[in-house]
Design brief:
With about 650 residues, this protein is an alpha/beta fold. About 50% of the residues lie in helices and about 10% in strands.
C-alpha cells in the first residue's frame, strides 16, 4: 500500500491521472461511501476519493452507486483479497468506525515480520498480535512446514485501544496462509487471550456502535467468537453475525468453510488443497481432543459428506470427514456406527492422487490402525477369514513401514500401528488365557521405546499439537500390559480383589524408573488427571502394593461430584481392588454402567465390559444376579458370539474381558 501522501496513479493507458493527498485512513474517516463521493464532488481535484472509494466498494461487495456520474476513467484501487474489516466502537451513537487488515504471504520471511500500519495505531497491539500469529503458525506448520508468517497491512482511521482487532487479523492471516480469498464485505470483532491461547469475546456494549459503522459502509457479515453476547440493538437488517470457534486450531477449516459457503460454482484447486489441510488440522488438533463435543464434530464434518455416495465431491475431503466421524463415534462407544462410517471411508480410498506429506501418510498408515480397533470392538480378534481383513491391512502397513526408510512422522505412525497390534495381541492373550502371546505383544509395544519422548512428546504433542497422543498415554499402555501379565500369571489371584499383584510384574515395574517417576508425579495432583491417567495410577499402585492412602482419598473427593466426566468405569474397576470393602463410588459408577446393558443395546464392546463389571460387583457382594441381568448386544453377529463365549466362563470372566 502506498505510504500516506505518496503519489498515486489511477487510470488506464496514457490517460493516467496523478494526485496526492488522500490515503486509506482518510477514506475510513469519511464514515461512508456516500461521504467519500461528496468529498470528491466538493474538491474534484482529489481523484483518490474515486479510486480508493471504488476499490473499497468492490471489496465490500456493493455497487459503487455513490460514485455514478464521476470520472469513469478513474479505476478502482483494489484492496487485497485477504482484507477483513475492523470495527471500532465509540461513546456516542452513530460514531463507530471502520478500518481494515490485509495479510500478504511472505514466502521468504523467517519468523515474525514487522506490521505495517497507517499513522493511526492500535495501542499495545504487538503484545497480542505476535503471540497470536505464532499460535496460528503452530496450527498450520505441521501440514505446511514451508509456510511463513504473513506481512500485515493495518489501516485505522483513529487511534485504537484494546484487542478486539485480533480476530480480524487472525482471519485475514489465515486466508493468506492457506491461499484463499476472504468473502467480500466481511468484518470481525474478537480478542485474543495470550495466556489461554484462544480467542475471546468482546464487551457486548461495544457491538452496537460497531454494527452501526458496518451498516453505514455496507458490511454484510461480522465474525465474532462463539458465545459472544450480541445486543438486540446491534442486530441490524442485512447484517449477519457469524460465530467462530475460540480455538485457533479450528480457524483454518472455519474460514475456508465460510469462503466455500459464499462462493457459487466449483472451488479453485488451491482452495480444495487448503481445505484438505484444514480438515486434517481439525482432525489432529480439535476432533481428537477429549474435550471436543461429539455433536459439534458431526456438524463440522457433515458439510463434506454428500448424501449420494456415488458422487462424494472431493474424495479426500469426504474420506477425512468420514474417518473423523468413525473415530469419534468409536471413542463414544458407538462401534456399529463407527464401522458404518469406516466402510464409507474405505469406499473412497484410491480415488484421485494420493496427497503428499503427512496427509498421504495418514491415508496409508493411520487409517488401517483405526479400522483394526473397530474390528476388535466388534469382537473380531483374529486376522484370519473375511472378518479379519482390517487386521491384515494393519499388518501389511506395518510390514511396509518396516521395509522402508521412514520419515520421523512415518515412524510415529508405525508406533501407533504397533500399539494397535499390541492391543490386538493383548486381547488375544487374555481371551485365550495364553501368557505366551504376551511376548509378541510386548515386542510391538516396546519397539520404539528409545524414541518415545521424541515421537510422542516432541513431535506429536508439541509439534503437531495432536490430541490424545502424548507420552502419558504410552505409559498407560505399559501399565495395562503389566497388569495383564499379572492376570495371566495367576488368574485366580487376579480375580481375588484383595490378593494383590504377583511378584514378577511388580519387579518389572520397579525396573522402570521413568514409569515410577510418572506415577509419582501423577500422585501429586490427582485432581488434574484424566480418567485414563487415573486408571493407570491405580494400576501402578496395585502392581507395587503400596497405595498412597492420602492420594487415594484425594482421588475419590475429586470425582465425587455428579456429572464429573471423570466418573469413568475404567478406573472405578481398579478402585474396586482397594480398601477392606469397595468404596461406594465403585457401586455407583459400575452399577450405572450395568443398568445401561440390562436391555439389548447396539453399542459395541460395552456389553462385554458390562459382564466383567457385573461379575466384580457380584464378587464384592458375595453373590448376586448382576451377570445374568446383562442382555446380549443387538449385533453384529461377531459381537453376539463373543458375548456368549465370555458369559459361558464366569470364573475367568474378569481376566478374559477386553480392555
Amino acid at each position: 500500500m502506498p505510504a500516506p501522501n505518496e503519489d498515486r496513479t489511477s487510470g488506464t493507458g496514457s490517460d493516467s491521472i496523478v494526485n496526492t493527498g488522500v490515503d486509506r485512513a482518510e477514506i475510513y474517516r469519511a464514515g461512508s461511501l456516500q461521504e467519500c463521493a461528496d468529498r470528491y464532488r466538493a474538491d474534484p481535484r482529489r481523484y483518490e476519493w474515486l479510486a480508493l472509494g471504488r476499490g473499497l466498494a468492490a471489496r465490500l461487495g456493493v455497487e459503487p452507486t455513490a460514485f455514478e456520474g464521476c470520472r469513469e476513467e478513474v479505476l478502482p484501487d483494489h484492496l487485497p483479497a485477504t482484507t477483513v474489516f475492523m470495527l471500532g466502537a465509540a461513546a456516542s451513537p452513530g460514531s463507530g468506525c471502520m478500518g481494515h487488515v490485509a495479510a500478504r504471504p511472505t514466502t521468504r520471511t523467517i519468523g515474525l515480520p514487522p506490521v505495517s500500519e497507517s499513522r493511526s495505531r492500535i495501542s499495545g497491539s504487538a503484545s497480542v498480535i505476535e503471540p497470536m500469529l505464532s499460535r496460528l503458525l503452530d496450527v498450520v506448520r505441521p501440514l505446511a512446514p514451508d509456510i511463513s508468517a504473513p506481512r500485515l497491512e493495518v489501516v485505522t482511521p483513529v487511534e485504537g485501544v484494546g484487542d478486539s482487532h485480533a480476530l480480524a487479523i487472525a482471519v485475514s492471516a489465515m486466508h493468506a496462509l492457506v491461499g484463499a480469498e476472504v468473502p467480500p464485505g466481511t468484518a470481525a470483532s474478537g480478542g485474543f487471550d495470550v495466556q489461554a491461547g484462544c480467542f475471546r469475546s468482546v464487551p457486548p456494549g461495544t457491538l452496537v456502535g460497531k454494527a452501526e459503522a458496518a451498516a453505514r459502509w455496507g458490511v454484510r457479515r461480522i465474525l465474532v467468537v462463539e458465545g459472544q453476547e450480541i445486543p438486540e440493538a446491534a442486530r441490524l437488517d442485512g447484517l449477519d453475525w457469524i460465530e467462530l470457534p475460540c480455538t485457533p486450531a479450528a480457524l483454518p477449516l472455519q474460514v475456508l468453510e465460510l469462503a466455500r459457503s459464499t462462493t457459487s460454482g466449483p472451488m479453485p484447486p488451491g482452495v480444495i488443497d487448503a481445505l484438505r489441510l484444514a480438515l486434517a488440522v481439525y482432525d489432529l488438533q480439535v476432533a481428537r481432543h477429549p474435550g471436543t463435543d461429539l455433536e459439534t464434530i458431526l456438524d463440522v464434518t457433515g458439510s463434506f459428506l454428500s448424501d449420494d455416495e456415488s458422487e462424494p465431491g472431493d474424495a479426500i475431503l469426504a474420506f477425512l470427514a468420514a474417518d473423523i466421524r468413525s473415530r469419534v463415534l468409536l471413542h463414544a462407544g458407538r462401534s456399529p456406527e463407527s464401522a458404518t462410517w469406516n466402510r464409507r471411508a474405505i469406499s473412497l480410498l484410491g480415488r484421485g492422487d494420493l496427497p503428499s506429506g503427512l496427509l498421504g501418510d495418514h491415508l496409508l498408515y493411520e487409517h488401517p490402525a483405526h479400522a483394526s480397533v473397530i474390528a476388535m470392538d466388534l469382537g473380531i480378534l483374529e486376522p484370519d477369514g473375511d472378518d479379519g481383513e482390517p487386521h491384515r491391512r494393519l499388518d501389511a502397513a506395518i510390514d511396509d513401514l518396516d521395509g522402508r526408510w521412514c520419515t520421523r512422522h512415518q515412524v510415529l505412525l508405525r508406533l501407533f500401528a504397533r500399539n494397535t497390534r499390541w492391543r490386538r495381541r493383548l486381547h488375544q492373550a487374555r481371551w485365550h488365557l495364553d501368557a505366551d502371546r504376551l511376548v509378541a505383544a510386548e515386542a510391538d509395544l516396546m519397539a520404539e521405546r528409545d524414541r518415545w519422548h521424541e515421537l510422542l512428546a516432541e513431535h506429536a504433542t508439541d509439534g503437531l499439537r495432536m490430541g490424545n497422543s502424548d507420552l502419558s498415554r504410552q505409559w498407560n499402555y505399559v501399565l495395562e500390559h503389566l497388569v495383564t501379565d499379572a492376570a495371566l500369571t495367576d488368574p485366580e489371584r487376579f480375580v481375588d480383589r484383595r490378593a494383590g499383584s504377583p511378584g514378577g510384574p511388580r519387579e518389572r515395574l520397579l525396573g522402570m524408573p521413568a514409569l515410577l517417576e510418572e506415577l509419582r508425579v501423577r500422585a501429586l495432583d490427582v485432581g488434574s488427571l484424566s480418567a485414563f491417567d487415573l486408571r493407570g495410577l491405580l494400576q501402578g499402585w496395585w502392581l507395587l502394593g503400596e497405595a498412597d492412602d492420602a492420594a487415594l482419598d484425594d482421588l475419590v473427593r475429586s470425582v465425587e461430584t455428579d456429572g464429573d466426566p471423570r466418573r469413568h468405569p475404567r478406573w472405578a474397576e481398579w478402585l474396586w481392588r482397594f480398601g477392606s470393602s469397595p468404596h461406594r463410588l465403585v457401586g455407583e459408577i459400575l452399577g450405572g454402567e450395568i443398568d445401561l446393558h440390562r436391555q439389548a443395546v447396539r453399542g459395541g464392546i460395552g456389553s462385554l465390559l458390562a459382564l466383567r463389571r457385573a461379575a466384580m460387583l457380584d464378587l464384592a457382594a458375595g453373590g448376586g444376579d448382576r451377570v445374568e441381568s446383562i442382555a446380549p448386544p443387538e449385533g453384529p453377529e461377531t459381537l453376539v458370539r463373543a458375548f456368549e463365549d465370555l458369559r459361558s466362563t464366569p470364573s475367568t470372566m474378569i481376566v478374559r474381558a477386553p480392555y
